[in-house]
Amino acid sequence: MLLLPLPAGATLPRAASVPGGVALLPLGPATGTAAPPRAWFGEQPVLVARRDGEWVAVVGLALDTPPGRHELLVQPPPAVVAASPAGEGAAAASTRVAFNVGAKEYPAQRITLKDSSKVDLSAADLARAETEIAEIRRLQRHWRAADDTDLEFIVPAEGRMTGRFGLRRYFNGAARSPHAGFDIAAARGSPVRANAHGIVLASGDYFFNGRTVFVDHGNGLLSVYCHLDRVDVQAGDAVVKGQRLGLVGMSGRATGPHLHWGVVLNGALVDPQLFLAARGNRR
Ligand SMILES: [Zn+2]
Question: Ligand 1 centroid vs 138 CA: distance in angstroms?
Fold first, then answer.
């Protein structure tokens, strides 16, 4: 795995060391053209960015991350290891960086679906949904080293924000998995745009998510666009920020036309709003 340094001017997401948030962990000075340290959270490699002359691990925290103490495994770049007086190997030089994840209580949302077949699944639909969920999880763990990951997103559709990230959802009164994305209600057929540049990793038509596009921004950062009416890109396409990926729709499990936008960081679905430009978020 080759990890390249990001540009010096990387704008980082807002730090929120809570389930569904992003922890920013300083990893030491970034000097000259030196390669960044490498970092892992559990099994997943972690994005490392350069900010104000230091390396910062940008760690995605899944909604089911238990609050409390966690550790990042950090390995210095090969050049630093070779120059160390002890001449130790890379494996011996690994360190652990401890950090704390706070608790966060997200609000509840109650949704009524007239089509109960999307709530109480038949055996065939359940089997299909489970297969798709496994495939989606595999896509979310995708890693591609890149030296130009853009961490400052634009909103991918114009419309009314109707569902915040993290909502604890009840469908027809029954508790379901929390809302791991950001919903924007918009007219069917309005454009869905790439929130940052990247490469289309996959597209598919899923039971819950409907017509869906995955864009890989590099270094474990991905965006997922769901419930589309039409998809205009295919796997392997390079897309620029603002490029149309498809049209807003209500395919899959949706109560009306909207874009469900998910953001994945080191395999974890995190709050997309942390990546949107806001006052005080610029370096
Ligand atoms: Zn949604």
Answer: 20
